[in-house]
Amino acid sequence: MTSKSRKVAWGRLIRRTMGLSLSSSFLLLGLAVSNANEAESATLAATQSLGQYIVLGYNDLGMHCLGSRYDEICILPPANTMRATVIRRGAEPEIMDGDVTLRYSIPGNTTSVTKTNFWDYAYPLFGANLLPDIGLFGKGMTGTMDPTTDGDWIAAAIPITPITDAGIENPYQLASITVSLSGQYLAATQAVIPVSWEMRCDSCHNTKGITPETDILRKHDRLHGTQLESQKPVLCARCHADPALGLPGDPSVSNLSHAMHKSHANRKFPGKAQMMNACYACHPGPKTQCMRDVHYTRAGNVCVSCHGTMAAVANPARRPWVDQPRCGNCHHEQGHEYEQPGVLYRDSKGHGGVKCEACHGSPHAIAPTRQPNDNVQAIALQGHAGTISECAVCHTTQPTEAFFHSREH
Q1: According to a count of CB atoms within 10 Å of the terminal CB, is the N or C end of the chain lower?
Q2: pLDDT at 268 (0 to 100)
Q3: DSSP 247-294
Q4: What are phi and psi of 104, to 5 degrees?
Q5: What does the alpha-carbon distance between residue 13 and residue 348 come to, in Å, rounded to a whole number?
Q6: Does the structure show a pLDDT above 60 at 18?
């Protein structure tokens, strides 16, 4: 694919009103991982006084991943997605649409251009001439969110890294979202904007004298007769279709998810046998521990409990980012609706038309989680962690009818 065709393909994707779904990560920078989340949350998670409006913030995946450097290879760009639902409280709460303005920021993380070399290679990789700290959808580290056609708001492809301005690695930073109407403040919240580059390719790709990236490309060239090492920087999705990026790839080769999982399914990874969650050998990770929600803490589930083994994920009949676990596979409470037919959890609506993840939390971060920052929003709105379950968060008078776990009643 030429630079011009990559630019056209990416332009089509930019016009979509949806966030990126990122599933992989690359090399870990040698910076300290922050263990300050609990202390940070203790000062932030105070119950707020509810006004006429509330805003619920959420991430579309529960973890977004990126590479730390892009001069040789790119699996995924820096492209995080935040969403939000605004509700006017009342006896009959109302979901707000385009009449209000939503702004986002990440306190303590105002720039990314000094933390990764992505902007030096955005054009050869994606055909995009980007200003510093501007992502592939035109969003920066602070800005406004856009209304969707589905009743919520979105800021897609925010180019955040896990490194704060203080040089601390924190995969669970808090984004601030503020709602205003004609310049007048209405409501605000804080929600995790999760991001990690903890994928230790160098655990296996560690040939002496060359970088892990060169090792990957050289092995690919030897096994598949390609010449990728001489074509750096290489975008994996240039050939291997990746629905997470909306790129079609080369139809004569397998998609990226199938190729990656099939290639690694039967290989031994250093330390993998000692990991409680073997997927952390590549996905973030022993330090990040992105699988952190109630399904892990209470049910003891790990990645394969829902997603299946690497061999199962590598099944060529499986559609990446489409054939995903569904709540109704395990939950069967009478009278409850779960995801809408043909719609993934992260896009589905529930009670009164509110997005499921607005109240329950993002995938991999279903409330309550063991990561304190994930619980900040719920504690602020209702005084305790967990699913947003207190009627008074949205209703100004206690409803007389029983709660309904469905889109309509």
Answers
A1: C
A2: 76
A3: B---TTS--HHHHHHHHHTT---TTGGG-SSGGGGTSS-TTT----SH
A4: -125, 155
A5: 21
A6: no
Structure tokens at 242: 């990746």
Cβ(367)–Cβ(376) below 8 Å:
no
CA distance 263 to 311: 9
Could you give the 3-state DSSP secondary structure of residue 359?
helix
Question: 403 is written with which tokens?
Answer: 């709660």
Cβ atoms of residues 86 and 390 within 8 Å:
no
Cα(389)–Cα(216) distance, integer angstroms: 48
Nearest to 24, CA basis, from 290, 207, 404: 290
**How far apart are the C-alpha atoms of 104 and 58, rounded to whole Å?**
12
In contact, 275 and 269? CB cutoff 8 Å? no
Per-residue CA distances from 108 to 36, 40, 76, 89, 380 (Å): 13, 12, 24, 31, 20
Q: Which residues pair with 146 in a beta bridge?
A: 154
For residue 331, give every residue at least 6 positions away whose Cβ sits within 8 Å of its Cβ, in sequence order, or none: 338
* 82-92 pLDDT tens trace: 999 999 999 99
CB atoms within 10 A of CB 90: 12
Strands 234-235, 73-74: pairing kind: parallel
d(C-alpha 111, C-alpha 78), whole Å: 12
Q: 344-376 pLDDT, tens per residue?
A: 999 999 998 999 999 999 999 999 999 999 999
281: β partners: none
Question: Would you state the structure tokens that stand for residue 250, as one six-digit string?
Answer: 């080369």
Read off the pLDDT band of 6 (50, 70, 90).
Answer: very low
pLDDT score of 313: 93
Mean pLDDT along residues 210-221: 96
Residue of higher predicted confidence among 43 and 261 = 261
- Residue 371: closest CA among 301, 296, 293: 293
According to DSSP H, which parts of 87-142 are helical?
Answer: 118-126
Pairing of β 184-196 and β 73-74: unpaired
Higher pLDDT, 258 or 4: 258
Q: Locate 239 and state its tokens.
A: 């050939």
Q: What tokens were used for 71?
A: 């001069």
Q: What is the pLDDT, as a whole number, of residue 14?
A: 40
374 close to 366: Cβ distance less than 8 angstroms: no
Angle at 273 between CA 272 and CA 275, to 5 degrees: 65
Total residue count of the chain as it appears in this document:
409
Nearest Cα neighbor of 150 from 338, 344, 321 is: 344
